[in-house]
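#help-structures

NK: newbie question. if I give both the sequence and a SMILES, will the prediction place the ligand too? trying with nicotinamide-adenine-dinucleotide
OV: yes, paste both and it writes out the complex. here, I ran yours:
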Amino acid sequence: MQSTPFRTPSPRVAVIGAGAMALALAAGLAGGDPPLRIGAVLARRPPAAPAFDGMAVCADAAGLLAWGPDLVVECAGHGAMRDLVPACLAAGVDCIIASVGALAEPAVLADVRAAAERGRARLVVPAGALGGLDALAAARLAGLTAVTYRGSKPPAAWKGTPAEEACDLDALERPAIVFEGSAAEAAARFPRNANVTAALALAGLGPEATRVTLVADPGLVANTHRIEAEGAFGRFVFETENRALPDNPRTSLLAALSLQHAVLNHVAPLIP
Ligand SMILES: NC(=O)c1ccc[n+]([C@@H]2O[C@H](COP(=O)([O-])OP(=O)(O)OC[C@H]3O[C@@H](n4cnc5c(N)ncnc54)[C@H](O)[C@@H]3O)[C@@H](O)[C@H]2O)c1
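OV: that's the protein plus ligand as C-alpha cells.
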C-alpha cells in the first residue's frame, strides 16, 4: 500500500467563507509540512485571493455536500454557522467551526447537537483565540468550582459596543472595567466577544456560572485573554497576548492557527 502522511490518502477538506480566517487557514495548510490543500470553498462570490486558486467554488450547502467533503471548516460568521453547519453534520460530515459564538444561543446549540447525532458526525469547537480549553475540559471531568475570564483590549477595540456607555473610551488613562457578569450576558451584550466566551462556557462551567470581566486598557496594544479555573484537579491560570492577522486586525493569528491545528488533528495519524 502507498504510504501517505494522512489517515486517508487525499483528505477532502472544504471551507465555508473566504475572508481573513479562511485565507489564513488555506495558506497555512498549503504551506505546512506535509502540505494539505483545501479542495472546495463555499463562497458568495468566487474568491480572488491566490490561496483559493484551484478550489471548487460552491454556492450553497447542497453544492458543498455534492463535492463530497469528509471535513468542513466554517470560517464565515454566526449566521453561516447557524444556517449551513447543521446540514453538513446531518449529512454525516464532521465540522470544525470558527464562529463558536453562535452556540451561545441555546436553540442553535440544540440544533447542531441534534444534527450531529442524526448524522453520527462530530462538531469540533476549537479553543480559537483563547487557548487553554483542553486543560479546562479535562478538569471539568472531575468537577470545576469556579471559572473566570478577563478579556482586555485597547480602548479603540471597544468602539461601537456597550463599553462606550461604561466609560469615555477616548479619555481613559488607566484600565476600566466595561462589563462584569455571566458568559451568557457577555455573549448577548458583546457579540464580537461571543466566540471566546461561548467556547469557554462550553468547555467549562456553562454560560450562567462562567464569570466574565471585560476591560478597556489604554496601556495595551494587543488583546489579552486570562482564564482562571479551580476545581478538584487544583487550579490553573492561562493567559494569552494575541497578535492580529496581518489581513484583519479584528482576528487573532492564534485563532487561525487553532483552526489549522484542529484540521491537522482530524487528518494526521499523530499530532501533539
Ligand atoms: N473562535 C475564535 O476565537 C475566533 C476568532 C476570530 C474570528 N472568529 C470568527 O470567525 C469567523 C470568520 O472571521 P473572519 O475574520 O474570517 O471574517 P471575515 O469577515 O474576514 O470573513 C468572513 C467571510 O465569510 C463570508 N460569508 C459570510 N456569510 C456567508 C455565508 N452564509 N455563505 C458564504 N460565505 C459567507 C463573507 O462574505 C466573508 O468572505 C467570524 O464569525 C468570526 O467571529 C472566531
